From TrEMBL:
InterPro entries for the chain: Acyl_CoA_acyltransferase, GNAT_dom, N-acetyltransferase
Annotated signal sequence range: none
Species of origin: Streptomyces violaceus
Lineage: Bacteria, Bacillati, Actinomycetota, Actinomycetes, Kitasatosporales
CDD domains on file: NAT_SF
Residues of the N-acetyltransferase domain: 10-165
Source organism superkingdom: Bacteria
UniProt name for this protein: GNAT family N-acetyltransferase
Length: 167
């Protein structure tokens, strides 16, 4: 299980079974899911993904994944994991649209990077972002991530790989 992390306005803690409906609602919101993985998925797939957090990720201690809460409500999802695509550890995060535009994304990305450096002892962390997701690209650039290369996806889309070294 991942440790609990706190930022000035957010609590990152392990998911509980009671979070399923909020998790599914977050991933079913196409404003969010269009930027996640391969894009929107059927509800049944998101429910199965939620189940795998417990049966696989937490049970086998594969990587750190958190529910992101503000004032006791689930407002996002966060993880840091080793991926071959970036040949290192990648931060992944999503916030519900009602949390956008208030600096919470910056707070969340900073917390994930700091966890990677301080707790995991990484010398750099990475993020992969759809080239059309200008809000995330701008946010990551502001906190020290630099574009290092592009990945051309099978569907013709472009994913930007960004890297931030430890400071």
């Amino acid at each position: 299980m991942p440790p609990t992390l706190r930022t000035p306005r957010l609590l990152l803690d392990p998911y509980s079974p009671e979070d399923e409906e909020s998790f599914v609602a977050l991933f079913q919101d196409t404003r969010v899911s269009r930027w996640m993985g391969d894009g929107p998925s059927p509800e049944a797939d998101d429910r199965a993904l939620f189940g795998r957090i417990f049966t696989k990720v937490y049970a086998q201690d594969l990587f750190d994944v958190w529910a992101v809460r503000r004032d006791g409500r689930l407002v996002g999802h966060a993880e840091i994991k080793r991926t071959d695509e970036v040949e290192g550890h990648e931060i992944v995060y999503a916030l519900a649209p009602e949390a956008w535009g208030s600096g919470l994304g910056t707070e969340l990305a900073e917390a994930l990077a700091a966890y990677g450096f301080r707790t995991l002892g990484l010398s750099e962390v990475h993020a992969t972002v759809d080239a059309r997701n200008t809000a995330s690209l701008h946010l990551l650039g502001r906190i020290g991530f630099a574009h290092v290369r592009d990945i051309e996806e099978d569907d013709g889309g472009l994913t930007r790989v960004l890297t931030r070294p430890a400071r």
